[in-house]
Design goal:
CATH topology of the largest domain: Rossmann fold
Number of helices: 13
CATH class of the largest domain: Alpha Beta
Bound molecules: adenosine monophosphate, tryptophan
Order of helices and strands: EHEHHEHHHHEHEHHHHH
Helix content: 40-55%
Distance between the termini: 26 Å
Largest sheet: 3 strands, parallel
Radius of gyration: 21 Å
Length: about 350
């Protein structure tokens, strides 16, 4: 079997850690929704088991898992077309993760920079789950034989590990069973920066709420945050090159482009030469126009958590239909007796 024989399949996971923001929308959710009609089977997973590698308040975790699901749906993901589910309802992920725990090497795991960052100085006190996190992530992907994995730049190393695990498994058991899953990295154009500092990524961990537009912000809040966004005193330049060295201006142009579905070049053609007192109200109107309905829809969906849970339940069943035979075949390859 050659790699070309794997049917294209998309898998991505997002941690339900609360506070979805414009960066998650333009960098992930909207991209997923735009790709939905290309006809490639796509699975999107709320990775709740990854979330608990560091302690989570149970009520908040439940809420965040439902809110993330609502965020997917409000962004245009159709749970009939894509498979939306939460990781813990598909036990094949953890079953496959055990197999991969036995394939991955300690030395590989120790090189993972995300573990080093998250564990900090006190690595002895980090959970074993946090150390094993990347093997579970490899299982998420490979238990579906996924070929394409849209993720942020920071996940590249975990995707390399996923390929290393797939290659070692294939080699150790002399099979061509797992595909070499490819990362699909967001372009610089879809990277949304902080509204307070154009050199920092917009992030839920920024202490200033003014640095980000939350997907749950109402129209007034969205408008206020854009109007107060940091800028420089110059008007917008006439072309993209003129944005060099002006990270805040570049960020607002990129956000406009992302929300309008235009290229940054086209935004410059329309907006070049305008002052920020002209451009910001236009951007604020656009952001309200695109984001306020999403926020309202998330609020509406969150009124009926039973419906959200039913969507996750159905998604999990569909996911298991794909994962179960791949896991069964893996067990057989490894030599585990089943009946
Ligand atoms: P996180 O919650 O940071 O793990 O991000 C979940 C998803 O949103 C990943 O696919 C990230 O690449 C994407 N994402 C997070 N922050 C940003 C940002 N500021 N700009 C673009 N994409 C982002
Ligand atoms: N580690 C990813 C992140 O922090 C989330 C994730 C878990 C994931 N499993 C995945 C992403 C599988 C893609 C595929 O963003």
């Amino acid at each position: 079997m050659s790699q070309a024989q794997f049917t294209p399949r998309v898998f991505s996971g997002i941690q339900p850690s609360g506070d979805l923001h414009l960066g998650n929308y333009l960098g992930a959710l909207k991209r997923f929704a735009d790709a939905q009609d290309r006809g490639v089977q796509s699975l999107y997973c709320m990775v709740d088991l990854h979330a608990i590698t560091v302690w989570q308040d149970p009520a908040k975790l439940r809420h965040a898992t439902r809110e993330l699901t609502a965020g997917f749906i409000a962004s245009g993901l159709d749970p009939e077309k894509s498979i939306l589910f939460n990781q813990s309802q598909v036990p094949e992920h953890t079953q496959m993760a055990w197999i991969f725990n036995c394939v991955a090497r300690m030395g590989w795991m120790k090189r993972m920079t995300q573990f080093k960052d998250k564990a900090g100085k006190n690595a002895e006190n980090a959970s074993l789950g946090l150390f094993g996190y990347p093997a579970l992530m490899a299982a998420d992907i490979l238990v579906y034989h996924a070929t394409h994995v849209p993720v942020g730049e920071d996940q590249k190393q975990h995707l390399e590990l996923t390929r290393d695990i797939a290659a070692k498994f294939n080699h150790d058991y002399d099979v061509e069973f797992f595909p070499m899953a490819e990362p699909v990295i967001e372009g610089a154009g879809t990277r949304v920066m902080s509204l307070r500092d154009g050199t920092k990524k917009m992030s839920k961990s920024d202490p200033s709420d003014m640095s980000r537009i939350n997907m749950t912000d109402d129209a007034d809040t969205i408008s206020k945050k854009i109007r107060k966004a940091k800028t420089d005193p110059e008007p917008l330049p006439m072309d993209l090159d003129g944005l060099e060295g002006r990270p805040e201006a570049r960020n607002l142009v990129n956000i406009y482009a992302g929300l309008a579905g235009m290229s940054a070049e086209d935004v410059m053609r329309d907006m070049g030469g305008r002052t920020f007192s002209e451009f910001k109200p236009m951007l604020a109107d656009l952001a309200v126009d695109r984001m306020a309905p999403i926020s309202a829809e998330m609020g509406r969906l969150m009124q009926d958590t039973a419906e959200i849970d039913a969507i996750l339940g159905r998604g999990s069943e569909r996911a298991r239909e794909i994962a179960a035979p791949i896991l069964a075949k893996t067990y057989e390859i490894v030599g585990l007796v089943g009946s």
